[in-house]
Write a structure and sequence with these properties.
heterodimer; A: mainly alpha; 2 domains; about 65% helix; elongated; B: about 240 residues
């Protein structure tokens, strides 16, 4: 401090004061942080840390998925799912980067179960539902795997029932139609005739809406055409 | 103050001459147009994901532009000896430091407005919803970028560009890992740790309903404190430098 002039000392004092102002503001923003305003989408973004980079992570996951989507539709379209292990590291990475990206859970869970790794496949499907509780695709996916590979009819029915909920979101009518058709099959096997009737009525409504909009489901999962 | 504004104007003119804002705007346009083409998010959060990615990219672009504009500004002027002609016109060193920061902050502001307008416009067109909250996020990003610019200007008064860049990146890292390092407010160092998390409002803007006016006011207080302290430190360092 000896080499400083009076104005230098004053400047240093001001620096300390302004840093204190910054820290007071910082404490105030901590107190005002809108933690209750996070959405209920299962998004677990935290305010602290590198939250800005979550957008970059989401972007990276999307890029990985886009790359893979083209690969397994165009280049490996004729290869059975259980042989498509090349995509597992990328699928894992995409899910790790963005837990809200639904498609990788669906594909990876099927690859695993088809290869005999049933427990891992079911775990992944369950994780997908946990992170995306409103995703109809993942609810039905989990229900199908439980019914086909775990022989757990009660759990499969519970998931299938959940997929019929009002809060469930579907990508489009085709996905909803296919999902409801799978739900119907699971409920039919479980002898839930009353619920099957309800699902059939919903399927008829969706069919009508698709007809009205000129949408055609190429897969025809419910074999009604 | 006229001399400060004149220096700020010179910094802005230089940035315009280097077409930095236009490059940023073009980058924003390409980026914003690409975001809606990402895989569909079937859980009803497409708009939120768009906002999140748009703000993250805005943040990355803002930090890059800040470093480009501020790391070599003062060392370059010293090396080219243009600084001497400025100081010979009765401009005080603190005025030069303040004017330089103001010019960079204004340029960043223009770049952020361009970026914000593009992501807002694309969001409106694609999702048919005017996402006004994006502007809160853009404002917070501009504030953080301007604080970083103040740090770069402060360091650059006494150091070479490489040290400025490393120092800026290190500061950015340290200022965003408070929660990871200290856990939470129960740690006694929590309230004295220098953090820029106040500007990090991406979660409430993307997935919630934004932040309150009180929060914005406190964010402005953090901004003022940081900028004033860093510009003062820069002025102090520059005044003691043997040119």
């Amino acid at each position: 401090m000896d080499g400083l002039t009076n104005s230098g000392r004053l400047a240093l004092l001001l620096v300390v004061v302004m840093l204190a102002v910054a820290l007071i503001g910082q404490a105030a923003t901590d107190a005002l942080v809108p933690v209750t305003e996070k959405s209920g989408t299962g998004q677990s973004i935290e305010r602290a840390g590198f939250a800005y980079l979550t957008g970059v992570r989401t972007y990276a996951a999307a890029v990985l998925w886009n790359r893979l989507d083209g690969l397994f539709h165009e280049y490996y379209g004729e290869t059975s799912l259980d042989e498509q292990v090349y995509m597992m590291p990328t699928l894992n990475m995409a899910v790790m980067l963005d837990p809200q990206l639904t498609q990788p859970y669906y594909v990876a869970a099927w690859v695993l179960t088809q290869r005999g790794e049933v427990e891992e496949g079911l775990d992944l499907a369950a994780r997908g539902v946990e992170n995306n509780p409103q995703s109809g695709l993942l609810r039905v996916n989990h229900a199908q795997l439980l019914a086909l590979f775990a022989d757990d009819e009660a759990a499969a029915v519970a998931q299938a029932e959940a997929a019929l909920g009002e809060d469930i979101v579907w990508l489009d009518l085709v996905q909803q139609h296919d999902g409801y058709a799978s739900v119907r099959a699971i409920l039919q096997n479980a002898g839930e005739d009353q619920r099957v009737t309800y699902v059939e009525s919903r399927l008829a409504e969706i069919d009508e809406e698709m007809e009205h909009l000129g949408i055609h489901d190429e897969h025809d999962h419910d074999h009604d055409h | 103050m006229n001399r400060v504004f004149a220096i700020a104007r010179a910094v802005v003119s230089d940035a315009i001459r280097r077409r930095i804002v236009w490059v940023v705007a073009l980058f924003a346009l390409v980026l914003a147009a690409v975001i809606p083409m990402l895989p569909s998010y079937g859980v009803g959060v497409a708009g939120a994901v768009y906002r999140e990615i748009a703000l993250a990219m805005t943040y990355v672009a803002a930090m890059i532009v800040t470093l480009v504009l501020s790391v070599a500004r003062i060392p370059g002027e010293i090396e080219r000896r243009t600084l001497y002609s400025v100081l010979a016109r009765d401009v005080r060193r603190w005025e030069y430091v303040l004017g330089t920061w103001m010019g960079i902050a204004l340029t960043l502001g223009a770049a952020m407005v361009a970026f914000g307008a593009i992501i807002f416009g694309v969001g409106w067109v694609v999702y048919s919803v005017p996402m006004w909250l994006l502007w809160q996020g853009v404002l917070a990003i501009w504030m953080e970028a301007a604080v970083l610019a103040a740090l770069c200007v402060a360091i650059s008064t006494v150091a070479i560009p490489v040290i400025v860049a490393v120092g800026a990146l290190a500061f950015l890292f340290v200022a965003h890992v408070r929660a990871d390092l200290l856990g939470g407010p129960e740690n006694p160092l929590w309230y004295v740790y220098p953090s820029l998390d106040a500007f990090n409002i991406i979660a409430p803007v993307s997935h919630g309903s934004g932040v309150s006016p009180a929060y914005l006011a406190m964010m402005a207080l953090v901004f003022t404190g940081w900028v004033a302290a860093l510009v003062l430190l820069g002025a102090l360092g520059f005044s003691r430098r043997d040119l």
